[in-house]
Predict the 3D structure of the following.
Amino acid sequence: MTKRYPLLIATMITLFFSCSDETTVYEDPNNKENLRLESNGTILENSIVYDKAGVLDIPDEATITGKYASSGKAQPAGDYPLTLVAQVDVPSFQGGENLTASHVVVAGDYAYVSYNTVDASFVGAVDIINVKNPRNPRVTSRLYYTNADINAPAYDGGYVFLAGGVDSELSVTATANSFVAKILVSGGSFDLDAGITYGFQDGYNATDVEVVSDKVIVTSGQEGFVRVYNKTDLSTVVEAPYADLRAVAANETNIAVLDASAGVSILDQNLNTVKDIAIDSDFGVNTKRILDFYGQNIIVSEGSKGAGVYNGSTGDFVEYVPILLDPATVDDADVVTNAVATNENVLLMANGGAGLCLSEDQENADTSLVGIIQLEGSINFVASKDDYIFAASGLEGLQIIKLNRPNESLIARCSDLLRYSGSANLNITSGSNESYTGSKRFYDFDVYGSLLLCGSWTVRNEVIVHENALFEMNGNFAVAETPEGVM
């Protein structure tokens, strides 16, 4: 996703704290001219849509290239039986009709989704979505910025932190272009009456924000900084200049920043350099890129190269996880890895117009591509928690996907069964008695005999259980379509 960065937010009043010539923090409980909360409950309720809910296919490289069709071999049943649970529509309001979902974080029972624009206007929004039961999500609060894009949210300790930008030439109070905002959240709703605290720093635009312990860490783009703020009052703790920062990732020990002009720098809590990892990739101009800690490694979204994996201790290159194209006609400019996320042994790559790629980290082996999850829109960001994936999909909004992994107790009860490894077109012939455990995707499902399945399964097309046949199921079973006569 490409975004032009200088943008305008509300003019702030009432000086709250000044900590340096470069940073000013404002607290403004009264000025809400350019902010608005959505008060129409029907609009929030109708933002959740289920029109496209159902089984998701994951074409692999052999399917995309036509290998199975040309060889005449039956396509094997696929791993990762995913289902699309629900979508959250992109907000739309007067003056803000072209928003796109840019970023999502999941904390506790809520997902926080930011929206910005890809055109010349500067309009944004932030959603709070209750995902305690991801099968029944609810938008509990929505904040509109009528003159600001919001590039990234974070949540910690009852507050949402937003990274964005301000055009200091048009603002009478802002001392620099980039900002971080701190907004109180109560019961899943924004509390604007408590005021919003803003901190400013140099750089064309604040690109990312992380909260660790008592610190808020913000990166700003070209000619910007990585700056550590005090979480309580957003006063500056320490900062370091960089040429073109795109992202930050942090844990209790280290801070990693991605500088598009040089690569990754691993820093200590005082921003002293521990290790530099030089990366010779074209990260694009003003484009979203993310990095993340992944065990002992660091994964970096490197645009057209895909995801680069580096050893976090030595800085050594480990491997590239390339971008798998589906369809192959995607514009080259849209084939970029914007963000990466991990969930146990699963690696997810938000590849813009090339879709959401799923790979698996195999023990003592390179990462193995599984395929492209069939989602619509340009995948700008991805997060994953428990058994769910949350994808910010541009104009398509937030998409909530269930991994459908079988629980361990179910596997234990079915431990004496063989794991299914046959065709994607399951056919149980008359008189046969078969039973399997596992987690697979089928295209067609046809039972004449007896079948017991334990685990998690999806079927993309027909499910037919014939007269006098027996189908027993212990686990999860999802069907995309329900033809006439299906049991």
